[in-house]
Amino acid sequence: MHPVRYHRAANLAEALALLGTPDARAIGGGTDLLVLLKEDLTRASTLVDVRGLALSETVTATDDGGLALGGALRIADIANDAAIRAAYPALAEAAASVGTVALRNMGTLGGNLAQRTRCWYFRRGAPTCLKRGGSGCPARSGANEYHAIVESGPCRTVHPSDPAVALAALDARVELTGPAGVRTLDIAALFADAARDATREAAIAPDELITRVVLPGARAGGVQRYEKVMQRGAYDFALVSCAASRAEDGTVRIVLGGVAAGPWQVNSSVEEDVAIGALDDESIDALAERAMYDVEPLAGNAYKVTIAQALLRRAMRALGT
Amino acid sequence: MAEVKSGFITTTVEVEGRTETRVVERPAFEPTPWGTDAALTHVGQSPPRVDAPEKVTGRARYTADIQRPRQAVALFLRSTVAKGTITHFDATAARAVPGVLAVMGPGDAPAKTRLFPSAISYAGQPIAAVCAESESVAWRALRAIVVQIDSLPFAATFEATAAPDAPKVRSAGNLAEPIVVSRGDVAAGLAAAEVTITREYRTPVALHSAMEPHGAVAEWEGDRLTIWESTQGIFRTRNDVARVLGIAQSQVRVIKEYMGGGFGAKNGAGAHTFTAALLAKQLQRPVRCVLERDGEQMDSGNRPATTQRVTLGARRDGTLTAIRLDADVPLGISGWEGGPAQLYHELYACANVHTTERFAHINASGMQAFRAPGYAEGAIGLEGAMNALATTLGIDPLELRRRNFAERDPRLDRAFTGNALRQCYDEAAERFGWTAPRPAPDRAHPERVRGRGVAAQTWPTGGGPPAYATARLNNDGSIEIASGTQDLGTGARTVLAQIAADAFGAALHDVRVVLGDTERAPYAGNSWGSMTTASVGPAVRMAAEDARAKLLDAASQLLNVPADALETRESRIIVRDSDRTMTFAEVTGKLGNVMIQGRGSRGPNPSDRAIVTVGVQMAEVEVDRMTGVVRVLRIVAAHDCGRVINPTLARSQLEGGILQGLGYALFEERRLDGATGVPLNPSLHDYKIPTMADCPAIDAWCVQNVDADANHTGARGLAEPPLIPTAPAIAAAVADALGVEVSELPLTPWRVLAALG
User: Fold this and answer.
1) Three-state secondary-structure class, residue B203
2) Which residue among A60, B401, B482, B617 has its CA within the 20 to 30 Å range from the CA of B64?
3) Claim to verify: residue A120 and residue A184 sit in the same structural domain
4) To which H or E segment does residue A6 belong?
5) Has domain B63-153+214-290 been given CATH number 3.40.250.10?
């Protein structure tokens, strides 16, 4: 890779100042960034290590009974943290399903949300790829088993993060800190432009940092599940995943991963019907059909619709019967 | 064997399924075969690998670990187009990068090396090499090279290259002459059949994915060249390099001490070898050229894809009356005709067999032998069709195989030296519980369905000459065995030490095996075709016995007893029927610097006998009918490889083959982009080999069956056989679980769901 300068930032202010310099990139575990650099998929002259900043690796209780997770929290710590496991088991399960032990021990929450697409056309440098300087999506007419079945823009990428799918089902909000201060986005907004933005999937400006991810107390507990379908038993991204939660107030969230450019929440009318409950097999089948009625699979990935419907049925059975 | 006075004799050797006739030296003596009752101390035991401490402490140095003084690093620039012509190549900026030592591009290498042609014929083909002080400098310089390639239409599938208007992939033509092999009358056999089934199977391009990539370090001293190479054949690599560089074989030394896998892809010198050698000569400093992982996955060999159209004819009782195969095999830009047909001729007794293989060249990286080349692919078709036939006939698939057991080698109508396949069937069925009632379905998860399947294998494992070994007894009693073979990680070094220890009557810790060095050891062939134990083992045994005879001769002088009254045991000489003993060291100590040496060579194979390793595997799987995900729960494997020298190492071979076969069944598939011919998944994430989480419970063993007719150690080969039946057994189990066959590998969720409709 090209030579880089490495800085371990002493505090948030220093990290932000360094990130404001040209070609600076924040690095957590480096499990994606170092690969991108070695494969010449991104440029950086300065790496700013954001691990060890105050509160960046902690789990803290919030006033509304929720939890705030530091941006540099390790994926393994999310999977193992007692408070997270008790209040947000779907997130703990999602974290536990990430990659391998080594990747979970190194990877951070912020880095997991900011990781780039695994699309093989992007990774192998297809010149027509929107994200490699082209204007199209070679996956549309190419090898697209792993790509999106939902149109979200010109590109048919799927976001690889497992935690993002669970966070979406838990109404989490992401705090981004930049030179102008803190702004807050929900997960849907974070990935809203993933299929259009030529430079990134998560809407994080180059001089911003994911400092916290906040889970609302309203979605603590209740019924939660995360299910991930992958080819291998480990070290795979989701073909399709599904996070679902029924909060104590009865509201339901059902979110699919692996089907769209970001976590894809099913139509709210479906969630509302599940919230009403007392679903029998027939109505579950009908709801699973309805949830997927407007997807547009490509030649090689219609199977994802089948899997998504299977996961939806299982989630609805857990939440709505 | 005919009585001849000559010191040379003609014998046949089967290499990777191909029979070769060789003239070889007749050994000075043939040791008495170690039969079933041979008194052996070390052979048959499971001492730890003799090099285990080196490996687990990291002291073992692999080719990629070699660090010579002033060593420079070379990296390849590879083509991103599948076919084209380089019209412009400018390395000015690359040469200007500080630390760059040399750039080789189109036209810069001697024609014989075939390096860096301006005509591009596959994506991933090396275009140029940069040599620099460090890997990071070379990496940056590669990106400063300006190349323009005029793209041309390409053909990257069998269908595309066989089309009438196909682009010319090779000047000699895209299609080779079909290989047709026939016995009996297949039309008559089909006419006589009471049941006929026809199936089509497709198998993917699979990549070897060895943990250690291909690589070489080259260093010249004057006109002599030393090459450290990750190779399955040090002598073949030496001879390749000498021929291509136009120097004498005596000027080239090839060393391979430790190795992280080859699986058939490392059988000689490659582009990296010649590049390292040429740059090292030019720069007068050592040069390392080790492939990066993407280069390894893109362009270091592969198991070619196949399409197999199979027809079986049988009587209602299951007796096969006809086997017919039509196969298409796209080989890549280069490769040999390692097709699926041979297994169809060898596994079952059937009078009428007709196979046609059509081989084609395509614009993709060339094939190389991959663990059981042809047979692993052929087993998908033949064993898949056998299981389908069993279902059609309503006969248990294991029983169908028993009914078609071949008492003699059906291809060449000759006796086997040994074939305990029926014993394998019996033992595997017992330990698997093949006839036991099936467990009740999981009521809580009705979508999870279980199935079980079976598949068998045969593979020629006789080994053969030439292979040489020397033994020498130092005057402190330590023993060195030298043979120019190599240990790929299989445990050959340990197995040969065990054989030498028993042949010598020595303690195992007194034996050191030197291999992997063309200057320190006499010739042995490539470690391929499951040949090493059966080829080199007898040579090592003979060398040790030759030296032992001289030791006993000397001891008889010192002890004043006849040599035939002496025995050796654990490095001691024992006078039979007395309490007099001497250690080897006491004898050699009295001899001063007299060196006791032995010479061994592999004798000819028995004429007109088939030497094979056979086996059977049974798989149990669970399939989620809703998601299409297949999990293998357990594999039971029983194989007959003659005498087992080291049961633990044999089991390691079985487990390794099974896991590789599991990957072939479920995950592994090289993907090329249809529009560009560019490999899409040349990484260990995207090319999916099994993880530990995918490992089933494995119950694998070799049945007891000493084969003293194969060679005088009684051992045949084992390396490739266990890969062959795993994937078809898994595929059969999936078909059993679903009630429908999935006829294309790998059995991905999308293929399983498509089969379910």
Assistant:
1) strand
2) B482
3) yes
4) strand A5-8
5) no
